[in-house]
């Protein structure tokens, strides 16, 4: 016989913070988090040291999941580096079309966390660096002449598609970004010199 245990206060706080910070931003109130998690204020401080610690932990969890999304999306696209990179933009289109899409959690957090020393910024920065490396590795496999620069361009297109998807619904930003990504993947034109 298997016994199922209900999530404890730590898990309930993480779940509530994950949902509410995405839907309402990291400025969501502590009282709303506690009410949604059905926990006492003491649990927040015992498990996370306060709201900032909870935000950082949510960012750590979601960045790990989203990095895995990039890996899985590219892996599912096969072995061709070009197809793997373009699959990212196809995946973004699906995410943007989801009814609960609210934009990029990390861009929103970075903009909302006014203190440049907030530990959440380190989490989002490290996440972007890891995604950049994933893209750069694929660009190297593709034989791109400037893989680091091209990875930066692709990340800019990703950020732009996610921001436009949240602020300008119905404009199909992922398809536009994919089209621009194709130009990045083609590299600088050698005959342009």
Number of strands: 0
Task: State the helicity in percent bands.
Answer: over 70%
Q: Roughly what is the average pLDDT, rounded to an integer?
A: 93
Name the shape in a single word: elongated
Order of helices and strands: HHHHHHHHH
**What percentage of amino acids are in beta strands?**
under 5%
The CATH H-level homologous superfamily of the domain at 59-188: Tetracycline Repressor, domain 2
Q: Count the helices. How many?
A: 9
State the low-pLDDT regions, or none: none
- Rg result: 19 Å
* Broad CATH class of the domain at 59-188: Mainly Alpha
Distance between the termini: 73 Å
Structural class: mainly alpha
Biggest sheet statistics: none
The CATH architecture classification of the domain at 59-188 is: Orthogonal Bundle
Describe the structure.
It holds the Pfam family TetR_C_31. GO terms for molecular function: DNA binding. Residues 29-48 bind DNA. Residues 7-66 form the HTH tetR-type domain. Keywords: DNA-binding, Transcription, Transcription regulation. With 193 residues, the chain is mainly alpha-helical. The chain has a domain at 59-188: Orthogonal Bundle (Tetracycline Repressor, domain 2). The chain is 74% helix and 0% strand. It is built from nine helices and no strands. It has helices at 9-24, 30-37, 41-48, 51-76, 81-97, 105-112, 119-142, 147-167, 173-186. Helix 1 packs across helix 4 (51-76), helix 4 packs parallel to helix 7 (119-142) and helix 5 runs parallel beside helix 8 (147-167). The protein is elongated and about 55 Å long.
């Amino acid at each position: 016989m298997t016994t199922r245990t209900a999530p404890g206060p730590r898990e309930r706080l993480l779940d509530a913070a994950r949902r509410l910070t995405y839907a309402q931003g990291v400025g969501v109130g502590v009282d709303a988090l506690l009410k949604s998690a059905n926990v006492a204020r003491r649990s927040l401080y015992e498990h996370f040291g306060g709201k900032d610690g909870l935000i950082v932990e949510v960012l750590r969890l979601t960045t790990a999941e989203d990095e895995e999304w990039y890996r899985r999306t590219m892996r599912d696209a096969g072995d061709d580096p070009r197809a793997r990179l373009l699959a990212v933009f196809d995946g973004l289109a699906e995410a943007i079309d989801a009814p609960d899409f609210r934009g990029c959690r990390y861009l929103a957090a970075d903009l909302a966390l006014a203190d440049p020393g907030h530990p959440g910024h380190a989490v989002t920065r490290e996440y972007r660096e890891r995604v950049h490396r994933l893209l750069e590795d694929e660009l190297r496999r593709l034989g791109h002449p400037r893989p680091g620069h091209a990875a930066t361009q692709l990340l800019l297109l990703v950020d732009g598609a996610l921001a436009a998807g949240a602020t300008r619904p119905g404009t199909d930003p992922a398809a536009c970004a994919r089209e621009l990504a194709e130009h990045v993947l083609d590299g600088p034109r050698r005959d342009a010199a």
